[in-house]
Amino acid sequence: MLGIALQTLRARWVSFLGTIVALVLGVAQVAAMGVLLMTMLDLPDRPPERFAQASAVVLPTDPDWDPAHHDLGVRSLPEAEGVSKDLLSRVSATGETVVDRAFYAQLHDGPKNQVGHPWAVARFGGYKLTNGRQPTGDREIVVPSDQAHTGEKVTVMTAAGVSTYTVSGTVAPVDWENAVFFGDAEAARISPRIQALVALGPIDQVRGAVGKDAEILTGKDRHKADASEAEDRETLDNTITLVPVMASVAGTTSVFVVASTFAFAVIQRRREVALLRTVGATPKQVRRMVRGEALLVGTLASALGTALGLYGAQLLTDMLIDLDISPPWFRVRPSLHWTVTAPLAGAFLVGVLVALCGAAAAAHRAGRVRPVEALREAAVDDSGMTPGRLLIGALGVGGGVGLAAWIAVGKPATILSPNTYVTELLVPVLAAAVIAPLAIGPLARLLMWPFRNSAGPTAMLVRESVLTSRRRTAATAAPILLTVGLALSLLAATDSLGAARDHGLRNQVASDYALAPDGTPGISPEVVDRVKKIDGVQIAAPLLTTVYTRDEDRYDENDGMVVDTSALKRTMDLTITEGSLDKLDDNSIAAPDLWGWDAGTTQKILLGDGEEATLKVAAVYKAMRGEDVAYLPERFAPSAAYARDGLARRAYITLDPGTDKATATAAIAKAVQGTGARFLTRDALVASESAYARHLIEVRQRSTAVIVVLFCFIAILNTLLMATSDRRRDLAVLRLAGATPKQVVRFFVAESLLVAGIGIVLALVASAVNIAALWAALLQLFGTTPIVAPWLVVVGIAAVSTVLAVIGTVLPVSAALRSRIVQLVGARE
């Protein structure tokens, strides 16, 4: 029967073209994302940058520390403390030792990622003066030649303040950092923490002096001391986080569409299968023939799909780089390495299996038809719901509703985890696609009800055509359902969660005004002091730090905020569940409820500079995962520069009663001018904060939605072309009944609009399940918040889907009307 299958494909290749296109695109998606993920498991070693010419680098580290489990900027306790005086003394005894420091230092209007170093370490990164001389005084610096010129006076912003320096010399710029070099004494004043040591003594003696107190980096390991190591890790973590989500959603969608398309292609050929049964073909032979066709089509399409996927992997990588998700150096290159061949082979097998599975059910069903019933079975469609599909549909509906209820009642915090939540949105939409044949009848009658009294037979013919061909209608409506349903669910979840976060932040901030970074990573404490000196002004500028707590033989790291406790009470409206902020003083702490600390208890903590403190929990407030920070008294401010960069991410400002608003706001604006801080209202702060916090979530969900929608757009056009091109007999019957070519086209357009309407209604029903669960979860997490969605975008997607459905109908109908057979039929009228 394989020979017959091959002959069938040669004779009717046009009928299988749509199936091949769908399968090629589905396999290409799976292959591209598989190659991207596997390539990330075997990344090339990055060469050292800052210490490329250093023989050995001493870097304090924690051997159990895994940076992949922490946000960018979070340091282990040994790394936060830096090199101790004792370790510096021991290493210096082995030979020449150069102290390295790395801290925030940005020229006014300079790049946001500028960093300061002592001039002594410049030579190890290959820096050489191109003009001028090295810095010798406390107010001299060396900068890249594209930032300033020798002799020029420039403003430099650091965590220690905003000062004016003279450029004593320049160096050639490099592509891996934007550095500002200070004299050694000035660098030590700005950043007391020693990040690393360059040891130039005998390596064996250095190892003996260091012992287990730090890590000694040599060779390619020196790259661990580069700032780009942490930046690359963050971007790669974002990629690793995003791609599986995209792969699961896009892969599931493509496999579903491909399987549905192939099954529909087999169903379209039931007449041929029926005729084979009447001439003596056994059920086994029929099944073997159909499986042979599926194997041939699956092999051809999967081979083309893997080739396209290899090319598409780099396109996907380029898209992620443009979105600032993946690092600019990340590339996917064709090779015979297992990271490329394994996912391609897997995608190829998936394509073949999807083709075989897509054809198996229809082949089994066609093989069971008795010869006497063959012609009747081939001519009349049924409900489209086989027992197996009904079972899967019931499980899908139950699972979708149950999952929605679980999110709404049991685990509302699930919506805060894009990795989990995005995949859960798939279930109701796919379940609706599976049970679509059951809904065809009621929806067709409902949508055609307004046209029940219309003149002419078109409305009646359209309704009856859909009702008597429910399997075909369900197959053609499925891509539209998936397109609109997934787009609405994903985009509504993204926008509603963002709006809820805005609402929560707006309610939490009690101040009328605020400061936000303006082209800088944060606000200098000196700028905060300037504002604090203005009469009638209260300001709270939390400094981000890390709170270390001992858990048996290891340390746990949590975010903390060092803040003026008196100003905190006036500027922040925290939801207190235990204790009171009135009890917050220099020896106490306000902790989030997620930490499990009780008000009134004492907790022993370690700060970034190694200081140990025992603090009383004065208050416990309600916090969400990801926003749970402890508020510490201002006396711990020096430790913030060790644990992080010593900058405030925002500052909250209130005015004392009776203070002249115009005078105070003008003084604040003048005080922060040119300091890298921007004075703004609370609402403007909320808008800027939400935009920053939502960026990665929006990129994840919107990029996933774009890939799914584009694939589904192609599937819509593909499926409608398949469905309509096989209806020459219907077209000929209409012509025999006296319909003009214009009336025939009108009938098919009306039918495609009805099919699109059915798909959109089912999508709205499935999305309603997701949105109801989302609303209930948001209500528990944030209080009363509205459901927000980009309705114009969703309407546009639905409109494009409908237009594609019409195009996929009109094109084959117009071609068929020009065929000689149909023209002869029309001539017999």
UniProtKB/TrEMBL annotation:
One of the Pfam families matching this protein, by short name:
FtsX
Q: What membrane topology does the annotation report for this chain?
A: Multi-pass membrane protein
Q: Where in the cell is it found?
A: Cell membrane
**Primary localisation category:** membrane
Molecular function as annotated in GO: transmembrane transporter activity
Keyword Isomerase among UniProt keywords: no
Ordered alphabetically, the record's keywords are: Cell membrane, Membrane, Transmembrane, Transmembrane helix
Out of the domains of life, which is the source?
Bacteria
Q: InterPro entries recorded for this chain?
A: ABC3_permease_C, Macrolide_Exporter_MacB
Which GO cellular component terms are attached? plasma membrane
The membrane spanning regions, by residue number, are 12-41, 242-267, 294-316, 336-361, 390-409, 429-451, 472-493, 704-723, 744-777, 789-811
Domain (ABC3 transporter permease C-terminal) ranges? 246-368, 705-818
Q: Which family does it belong to?
A: Belongs to the ABC-4 integral membrane protein family.
Its name, as the record gives it, is ABC3 transporter permease C-terminal domain-containing protein
Its source organism is: Streptomyces albiflavescens
